[in-house]
Amino acid sequence: MTYTKEKIKNAIENGIIYPDGHSIIDPDHYEGFDVTEITEVHHSDFSSPTTTIWGHDGEPKESMEGVYNLTFLYWVADKAGLEVDTPYGGRGSNARHIVKQLVEWSGADPDATR
């Protein structure tokens, strides 16, 4: 399946596609996208706060089923036919860079991702 510029533009402007490279998101968030193949159970590595999954209650979680948003961004860019380059080392920087490329490609309002 490929995604059109219009679909990507609408997803950006409706907050479905946004520049977060850290979060695990409920698959229902990605309305209109079949994210089954990238939905998985993610497990905490309690050795560091950055590798621990934190619940909305602020407590660490053993595991959580969902979509890692950075994986979604790479996946949706690929499904749109874009070759994304991510020259940055950080997850957040890469997420912002991918979304910027999607915004430019689709003609979405750049302010929609702020």
Give an overview in words.
This protein is 32% helix and 15% strand. With 114 residues, the protein is of the alpha+beta class. The chain has one domain (5-108). The strands form two sheets. Strands 1-5-2 form a three-stranded antiparallel beta sheet. Strands 3-4 form a two-stranded antiparallel ribbon. Helix 2 runs parallel beside helix 3 (91-106). The model has no long low-confidence stretch (mean pLDDT 94).
Task: Based on the model shown, name its key terms.
two-stranded antiparallel ribbon; alpha+beta
List the helices and strands and how they pair.
Layout: H1 5-13, E1 24-25, E2 39-43, E3 53-54, E4 60-61, E5 63-68, H2 69-79, H3 91-106
Antiparallel strand pairs: 1-5, 2-5, 3-4
Helix pairs in contact: 1-3, 2-3
Structural class: alpha+beta
SSE order: HEEEEEHH
The helix content, as a percent range, equals 25-40%
Report the β-strand fraction as a percent range.
5-15%
**What is the 3D shape?**
globular
Q: What count of domains describes the coordinates?
A: 1
Largest sheet entry: 3 strands, antiparallel
Summarize the structure.
The protein is of the alpha+beta class and 114 residues long. It has three helices and five strands; from the N terminus they run αβββββαα. It has helices spanning 5-13, 69-79, 91-106; strands spanning 24-25, 39-43, 53-54, 60-61, 63-68.
